[in-house]
Amino acid sequence: MERHLDEELEHLNQELLKMGAYAEEAIYKSVEALKSRDKAMAQGVIDGDSRIDQLELTIDEKCIDLIARYQPMAKDLRFITTGIKINAELERIADIAVDIAQRTLEIVDKPLLKPLVNIPRLATIAQKMIKMAIDSFVNGDSELARKVLLSDSEVDNLRNVIQKALVEDYMVKDSSTAPRAVQLLLIARFLERICDHTTNIAEDVVYMVRAEVVRHHPEKLK
Amino acid sequence: MERHLDEELEHLNQELLKMGAYAEEAIYKSVEALKSRDKAMAQGVIDGDSRIDQLELTIDEKCIDLIARYQPMAKDLRFITTGIKINAELERIADIAVDIAQRTLEIVDKPLLKPLVNIPRLATIAQKMIKMAIDSFVNGDSELARKVLLSDSEVDNLRNVIQKALVEDYMVKDSSTAPRAVQLLLIARFLERICDHTTNIAEDVVYMVRAEVVRHHPEKLK
Q1: Which among B175, B189, B207 is the top mutation candidate for probing chain A, defined by the most A β-carbons within 10 Å of its own β-carbon?
Q2: CB A88 to CB B92 under 8 A?
Q3: Is the pLDDT of residue B17 over 70?
Q4: Which pLDDT score, from 0 to 100, does residue B115 have?
Q5: Closest Cα in chain A to B70
Q6: Min CA distance, B168 vs chain A (Å)?
Q7: Nearest chain A Cα to B57, which residue?
Q8: Which chain B positions have a beta carbon within 8 Å of A189's beta carbon?
Q9: B87-100 pLDDT tens trace
Q10: Does B81 have pLDDT greater than 60?
Q11: Do B172 and A175 touch (CB under 8 A)?
């Protein structure tokens, strides 16, 4: 039975990695659609969300089923309950990619306000953070999770730069740009929110690993 | 042992109700501070967040401990794992109240752009939704949870009204209002996000109740 649970947990890892990959892809495509004015790609992100919702339910059921069937103790139990929380965060992240795709559809027919540099940069950071956060969970690597947390100030800075430029260089100087500038500002905020969810995942991993350390190796706390 | 778990679950309910009350209070105070230009109140929301973070950890530990000690099956297990997710959502909601308080501190020294009507209205809806969502969990009341889900379109409409007014009546007409209008727009978005988290809670409750119905009373699905 013990080995069987290990196999099940390995399968759970694979499912969460898949969920993470779906979320990364949704972010990439939503911002790529914005950059390249590609309506079909934006629509694809919106249509693809049901696949992610379905996988979330499957993983959630899997986690509850594993707890009920194996009654795992300590480390494994904490791994599974953390998996439940991470799964929910990834679903939220994919939802936000849908929000970005919807904003994109709203402005795609209007002239581009400016060449997009910092928004795609923010999207790339978000994708990297998701990958690191999931890897940190799968490997129980709290150091890697801490690196995700360190990215947070870079994200805040970049979002501030984007917001300041949109308000001061566009809205204030030429009020006719406001409707489009607001949409870009919201997209930057959506990306920041994705990073916040990723930070939640990393915090959950740090907490999962530390709680384990505290319970079984109190000497490591010194 | 059975009765003991019931008592523990009742205690978990009380803790989650307390968490919900804290979150509601943080939202109320963050928007009240904005309305009444009260810096101390805004700062109080920011300072009070550590209390909510601490309660989140306590509840999370409690849930894992209950699973480990009682190895609950089916209904009780699903109740506890749903509690873990709801607890996380409430902590995020309180974090967003902190975001609102921070925006408030940024604009509190500048002249009020306009009398605030719809933003406080949105905050009131958010508070009601939280209360209903937690009550629906505590009572396993999926009908009440569905009512929370129905509020979502009201929230979206109100947020659209707020955003449209800020962009069209302020930013576009007088570009010098843009920096303040953007802050109000972000606050409206933060409140919408709080409602999204509350919707997540209600969806979790519907799912919790339905999964139970499906497992034990398949005839109810017809």
Answers
A1: B175
A2: no
A3: yes
A4: 86
A5: A71
A6: 8
A7: A207
A8: 186, 189
A9: 999 999 999 999 99
A10: yes
A11: yes
Residue B211 has pLDDT above 90, yes or no: no
CB B122 within 8 A of CB B198: no
- pLDDT band at A210, cuts 50/70/90? confident
What token pair was written down for A203? 């915090």
Joined tokens for residue B85: 């997710």
How far apart (Å, rounded) are the C-alpha atoms in residues B42 and B48? 10
Q: For position B114, what pLDDT does the model report?
A: 84
| Contact across the interface for B64 and A78, Cβ inside 8 Å | yes
Average pLDDT of B191-215? 88
Asked whether the beta carbons of residue B85 and residue A81 sit closer than 8 angstroms, the reply is no
Average pLDDT estimate for B165-182? 94
SS in 3 state form for chain A? CHHHHHHHHHHHHHHHHHHHHHHHHHHHHHHHHHHCCCHHHHHHHHHHHHHHHHHHHHHHHHHHHHHHHHCCCHHHHHHHHHHHHHHHHHHHHHHHHHHHHHHHHHHCCCCCCCCCCHHHHHHHHHHHHHHHHHHHHHCCCHHHHHHHHHHHHHHHHHHHHHHHHHHHHHHCCCHHHHHHHHHHHHHHHHHHHHHHHHHHHHHHHHHHHHHHHHHHCHHHHC
User: What residues in chain B have their Cβ under 8 A from chain A's Cβ atoms?
Assistant: 57, 61, 63-64, 67-68, 71, 73-74, 77-78, 81, 84-85, 88, 92, 163, 167-168, 171-176, 178-179, 182, 185-186, 189, 193, 200, 207, 211
Complex ipTM, two decimals?
0.87
Identify the band that residue B216 occupies on the pLDDT scale cut at 50, 70 and 90.
Answer: low
pLDDT at A217: 55
Contacts of B172 in chain A (CB under 8 A): 175-176, 178-179
pLDDT at A50: 95
Pick the CATH number of B2-221 from 3.40.50.2300, 3.40.50.150, 1.20.58.220, 2.40.160.60: 1.20.58.220
The residue extents of the domains of chain B are 2-221
